[in-house]
Each structure stands twice: as C-alpha cells, then as structure tokens.
Amino acid sequence: MTASVCTDPSLARIHPTAILEAGVEIGAGTSIWDSVHIRRSTRLGAECIVGEKTYIAYDVRIGNRVKINAFVYICNAVTIEDGVMIGAGVVFTNDRYPRATTPDLGLMRPSEPGEHTLPTLVREGATIGAASAIGCDLVIGRFAMVGMGSVVTRSVSDFALVFGNPARCAGYVCRCGFPLLRSRGVAPEVPAELRCSDCSRSYNLHNRMVTELPQGAG
Fold it and tell me: What is the average per-residue pLDDT within 170-179?
C-alpha cells in the first residue's frame, strides 16, 4: 500500500495487497479488501466495504455505509451517496464518444478528464445489480433498484425498479427493497397510494414519480 492521507488509518481495515494512492481518504470502520486499487484524492466515508479487485478512479466521492462488491469499475466523475449497494462486476462510464487516439491516430488521448467527461450521481440508498453497465450524464435516484445485467442509459427516478438493455422502468420498490408495484401489465388506473407489504411504509405515486408519505400515513 502506497502513502495515503486517511481520516484515521488505524480505524480502517485495509488488506496489504490493496493500493491506495496519495491523498486517498478512508473513513473509520471502512474495509478495503485484496487487490483493490484506489486512485489519488478519492474519498470514502465511514463503514464502507470495497470488495476484492475493485478499481476506483481519482477524485471519486463515496459516502458512508456504501457496499461495493468485487470486480467493480468506478471511473472519474462518479459520486455515490450514503447507503448505496453496488453488485459485483458493475462498470461505470464517463465518456459518450471515447477514442484511444486523435482522429489521425497520431497521438494517444490522455486519461485525465476533458470536455467530454460527464458525471454520474448515485443517490442515497440505491442498489445497482451485478454486471450492470452505467452510462454517464445521468442520476440514479434515491432507493432506486437496477436489476442485474442492466444497461442504464438515462436517469432513474427515486424508488424506481429498472432492468434490461436499455434499462426501462418495470415498477417501484420500497426503502426496504420489497416491490411496491409492478408496472408491466398494470391497468391505467394505477393506485395513488402504495403500501409496502413487508415494512408497511406508505408512498404516493403521481405522474410516474414516487414520494414517501410520513410514517403511519396512508
């Protein structure tokens, strides 16, 4: 492990084969497993887990209690908020028009961010299923769920369940992850209020947008 600037290195668990470049900050209680590579100036919050052989590019911002499974690729310009779950083999992207060289093949293009680098924001509580590919210039909403193997090419609304290639909305989920409504095959008269069958939280559905109701309402 190379030199790094950690919030408190003694309170983090870092495998001896992990590579942390200069300026990396790791929160207390975070675990970094074997063969992980975290580039310079990236910040991870407290109580995160980063699975084996994951790569996190420089200047990435990751919140608290984020679970990143094995073989994940997180590129520059990605921001991940608190409580996000990222399944194994997920790949983020940040360029819609990537090329290795200049048009005449004379020069290698630099890897640093440029005019074509576009951001991705994963909001709190979201889940991204294993082996998904995430496009750029988009937002994955609060507590949304992306099914495994999906290709996300546009923003995902809060609490939406999406899957497929390209990923499309197939329903809505609760904070706890249980389905609230399956939208495929549902009649146009969709109920205005939804209640989770597992934890009894209530939600309002209007114009394909889900919002939480105060606990005990509905």
Answer: 95
Q: Return the exposure string of 50-85: e unless at least 16 CB atoms fall within 10 Å of the residue's CB, then b.
A: bbbbbbbbbbbbbbbbbbbbbbbbbbbbbebbbbbb
Q: Which of 100, 82, 184, 93 is nearest to 138 (CA)?
A: 93
Residue 24's CB is within 10 A of a number of other CB atoms, namely 25
Helix (H) or strand (E) segment spanning residue 67: strand 67-68
Instruction: Tell whether the model's pLDDT for residue 190 goes beyond 90.
Output: no
Helix (H) or strand (E) holding 181: strand 179-182
> Mind giving me the DSSP string for 120-169?
EEE-TT-EE-TT-EE-SSEEEPTT-EEPTT-EE-S-B-TTEEEETTTTEE
Q: Determine how β-strand 202-206 pairs with β-strand 193-195.
A: antiparallel
Fold of 9-180: UDP N-Acetylglucosamine Acyltransferase; domain 1 (2.160.10)
**Count of CB atoms situated within 10 Å of the CB of 214:** 8
83: which 2 tokens? 């409580």
Contacts of 99 (CB under 8 A, 6+ apart): 109
Q: What residues contact residue 98 under an 8 Å CB cut-off, 6+ apart? A: 116
Q: How confident is the model over 128-172, as pLDDT tens digits?
A: 999 999 999 999 999 999 999 999 999 999 999 999 999 999 999
Residue 182 main-chain phi, psi, to 5 deg: -95, 120
